[in-house]
Design goal:
The complex is a heterodimer. Chain A is an alpha+beta fold. Chain A folds into three domains: about 210 residues, Aldehyde Oxidoreductase, domain 4 (2-Layer Sandwich); about 325 residues, Aldehyde Oxidoreductase, domain 4, CATH 3.30.365; about 140 residues, Aldehyde Oxidoreductase, domain 4. Chain A is about 30% helix and about 25% strand. The longest helix of chain A has 28 residues. The model of chain A has no long low-confidence stretch (mean pLDDT about 95). Helices cover about 30% and strands about 20% of the residues of chain B. Chain B has 18 helices and 19 strands. The longest helix of chain B has 19 residues. The chains are: A alpha+beta, B alpha+beta. Chains A and B meet through helix 1, helix 17 and helix 19 of A and helix 2, helix 3, helix 5, helix 16 and helix 17 of B. The complex binds flavin-adenine dinucleotide and FE2/S2 (inorganic) cluster (2 copies).
Chain lengths: ~750, ~475
Amino acid sequence: MRHCDSELHVTGLSEYTDDVAPPEEMLHGVIFGSPIAHGKIQKLYTSGAEKMEGVRGVYTFEDIPGTKIIGAVIQDEPLFAHVEVMYEGHPLAMIVAESVELGRKALKACKADIEPLPVTVCPRKAFEEGDVLQETRVFEKGDVESVWEHCDHVIEGKVDLAGQDHLYLETNRCRALPIEDGQIKVFSSTQSPSAVQKWIAAVLGVPMHKVEVDVKRLGGGFGGKEDQATHWACMAAIAAMDLQRPVQIVLNRVEDMKMTGKRHPYKQDFKVGLTQDGKILAFDVAHYQNSGAFVDLSLPVLERTVLHATNAYAIPHVKILAAACRTHLPPNTAYRGFGGPQGMFALESAIYKASIVMGVAPEWIQSRNLISNGYRFHYGQEVSACRMQRTWDEASEAFDFEGVKKRVDSFNASNRGKKKGYAVMPVCFGISFTKTFLNQGSSLVHVYTDGSVSVTTGGIEMGQGVSSNMIAIVSRMFGISEKHVRCNSTNTSRIANISPSAASATSDLNGNATINACKEILVGLKEVAAKELGGKPEEITIEDDIVHLKGFATDLTWEKLVLNTYFSRVQLMAHGFYTPSGLHYDYTKKENHPFHYHTYGTCIIEVTVDCLRGNYTIDLARLVHDLGRGIIRSVDLGQVEGGLAQGIGWVTLEELAYSDDGLLLSHSLSTYKAPDGDFLPNDIEVRFLENADNPGGPLGSKAVGEPPFMYGIAAYFAIQRAIDAFRLNVPDEIVSPMTPERVLLSLYDKDSVKPKQPSSV
Amino acid sequence: MKPKCAIRFILNNQEVTAWESPGRLVLDYLRDSARLTGTKEGCKEGDCGACTVLLGSLKDGTVSYAPMTSCLIPMGELTGKHLVTIEGLNQDTLSPVQAAMVDCGGTQCGYCTPGFVVAMTGWLMDPKRPISSVGVRESISGNLCRCTGYRSIKEAGDQVVEKLAAQLNGDDRIQLLCVLGALPDYFETIPERLAKIESIAEPDSSSFKERPVVIGGGTDLYVQRGEEIPYQQVHLLNNIETVAPVVEENGHTIVDSRMSFQAFGDDPLIIKAIPDIQVYNELIASWPIRTRATIGGNICNASPIADMTCLLLAMNTELHLEGGDELRSIPLKDFFLGYKQLAKTEDEIIEKISFFTPGEKSLINWEKVSKRSVLDIATVNSAARFEAENGFIEQAYLVLGGVAPIPLYLKEASSFISKQALTNELAMEAIDIAQTEFEPISDVRGSADYKRLLARQLLLAHFIKCFPEIISEEVIYASL
Ligand SMILES: Cc1cc2nc3c(=O)[nH]c(=O)nc-3n(C[C@H](O)[C@H](O)[C@H](O)COP(=O)(O)OP(=O)(O)OC[C@H]3O[C@@H](n4cnc5c(N)ncnc54)[C@H](O)[C@@H]3O)c2cc1C
Ligand code: FES
Ligand code: FES
């Protein structure tokens, strides 16, 4: 089976939010964002715009009929900037016009008097000034202070880790249509339809049942539309209700890049202590998260940074400081990995530095510290069904780590202008929302009288294949062909109180809910079949669209059974609900169980650096990943490769450049470079663990969306090691991304360039 | 006011007359007016490929197709052309490209997918493009995908190559592709149908009320002024007449300034003159941009990092301008007066460019470093042409881009190294001298320190590549 939308996609016939034929009378909203990063709003001039051709309305903070302040975790964000602008692009007003072109023309007539206020872009600075979003937390296991003196090596360092734009190819967009009786129907490119519903109801001041949110598919989300699709939908809804006409908002690329939050940049301090034989005894790390201007999802993101601060390593003494620092950037938000990558990067930096000091290969240290069953994480959960060592061993053998080392060393010994490097990255990632209440999934399965089946869940199809997985699950549960099954759009009128499609858990939660719904329908189906065939319900199975009795095919087809069931007045639709048991997490407690299970894997990446020009190629990426028993191989493989690609991009090319006054300089695709087909290696090999059923996942599977992102971290250290082979020059501060600029400036001293007038001959 | 006019062309399988402003973008027309939404907008700057379409032009009875980003094509250019969108490639069953994308899992969220399918199909249709694994990868040089990591898309390309390569020999690929089910049959009727569309006259430039915007490929203009141009009068250079191939006269190579980068790199005379031109081209923009970006536009946009301009400066190129009081010529190195300031009047148009044809003694090298190798703007680029024999440099032309307000011809360094027998020391000295000719600034593409360092490295690269027996890679260690 393939991704169920594949044929629509390759023919260009799949419809995204704004592809559906617009109603005749639809209007278009465009956003007037703040031109500066921080300042006091003195006056907003919109009357010029109001008078322009085709403009039907201009909306600001004052025009919000209901709740004016929104926020996913903490209500701290005015829907339109009020009193102060807090980041460049911060929405000040929305113009609604007959066409996008007219709206954009009117935009040019908008002005604002804003008195500039000091701008902070560095989280360390915010921290020093005490501008934090919650009280800074410190987590401890054991006592790091007591062990430094017992370590043979104690290494300290700093890390400066950049953010990352989501760069979903489809920018944020939504369409709001007013309908009878004060209701509104909204099509939104969101990962959280219920959040959109809730906040629209709030800003309009109406009950949630008056708001219907429908999501067919997203042209990519990656976390960027978990919380930040909400704003645009709220704005469109306000205008649509006010004007009683449909309103659509489509951000252009530059607006999307300037106005929406990204992966959190972090600054970090670390101290690591090891024994002579490579055992890590203590790790002390401080995470200064660059949270942006409002809370958004920064706090749960920071929480996951803490949870994954020791990644796949067993460390007896751990201390983690976690500070959420307010800066004048757009509120940073969810992004594949959700703080996990930042947590892991610091420790890999520590291991890399330690390897230099100790004169060993980093993987020598890595391999000596991998977790195994019985290890207790610093958050209290005990490791069980651990497959860390297994993925490491299989990767090491399949990809011949020893051989790679020899090959790279000998290449470097015999080449001057080019150097190779490689690095290994083990990953252990916990699956579940750390906000325990979000771990719930719902599914609605309808079996129609002709035997066709539709399934609706809370899962949002954003390319990750959740709808294909739901189809596969229904087809396997019922024993019928996939062609009988369709997956519907996600809709708040069919499924209530949907958790965001995030935390890699969408397929797990909604898949298990779907299984429950199918089971409920199967009870009736089997009773009807048993009666008809003269057996017991438990003797009935369905395989390949045929009803079987005691394992033997009968004449009863699926279609016939369904029809008989209907005529027997037995239920053919069911709502399934699922929540994993045993989860709890409270950061103030020592004993926690935040994760349903963990997923594991090991990756090796090899690169070649051109030491003349400073650019590099990623030559190969090979990995062994624990997927449980996969549902649809090509879908899972796509998730692993796509995650890897984004991870590599994060630590290499993708550079969010800000001016000192907080303006985003790389705000378009011509300046913000994400990996393309040429940059990413042709040699990508993904192996899945065999015989690795996961009792916690639907049909034995494991969540797959986020964990592979962190394999990309290997690219950073592979390049660093290639640089080291040219010239050992360990930086004081490990700075990511490793752009060609950083490489060249590491290979040579900038002062080695000597301008010189021609000598008079 | 929008100056609208009737534009006649074939859209997929249908003759249409659109009443449109000639400066309006084809992408907007497709999505908003024609309601063909398979063509997606991802950036509106030519950088993502989600909006890729094919444009077919009739010449001598055959139609040749080129991929283009519809977010940068003016409507006016559609006159008499065949515009093909993803919808126009669809048949009752999936084409081999579409089937391979499905089969290999090359689509996830699907937003980028139509662009990939169109680009790959366009590659198969162009007889100049090799049907090979490497070739198909080049076809998607202008397409971004955020979901897949590309391996599956490359595999799809390989699958198409495997399936079709043996059968796609011969020049009439369109016909073969129709037979193979890779294109709908209607493509075979297009030449005849295009011939029937009489091209309507462009508004005469003398009748413009205001000075029109002169548009070559539009790849710079639309990125810079995309919101205004649809409302302005435009003078579309591409509509004048078909671009003539390169000619050689009296030892000079003469090029129509409206030539696209792609046509330039494909031209046999250019390949003879600049043997590595195709390698360079792969580092310049992307395939769908190169089919539009013109040499004249590259020069007149006057960006300090203009890639072709950099190369042409080293070729000691002359510009031939018309539209002023008289036809006149000016050396390219005297054309740039300051940042985006040109030694020409607003009415003057570059008609042709020429350079003396390289011979036995010529050594040419061009270098570019950008963050991403493909489809990225240079941080620093550099070109060199040496006329040399047995290590004796008779004449050197050294150029750097990205370090000064203009594409910079290195006068001092070039003259210093000319009429000298090259040595290691001399090369290093020339490079040190070059460093006195510019003062780079820090910007989003790199810090001043980085640019200085890069400048040295790229100049060094010329010597290493052109004179390997004299200058070896070892010199790069000397500077440590
Ligand atoms: C995605 C993308 C990638 C790019 N990558 C590169 C790259 O790698 N390297 C690079 O160098 N450039 C790159 N560019 C920039 C651009 O493509 C080139 O500069 C191109 O050569 C511009 O040519 P054009 O014909 O499209 O110019 P236009 O946009 O049509 O015109 C540019 C300017 O030149 C004037 N003009 C055009 N032709 C003439 C003429 N014959 N006589 C007088 N004036 C004229 C126009 O009036 C205008 O002022 C890229 C652009 C895009 C969109
Ligand atoms: S929209 Fe991105 S290239 Fe045209
Ligand atoms: S499939 Fe989503 S961007 Fe390519």
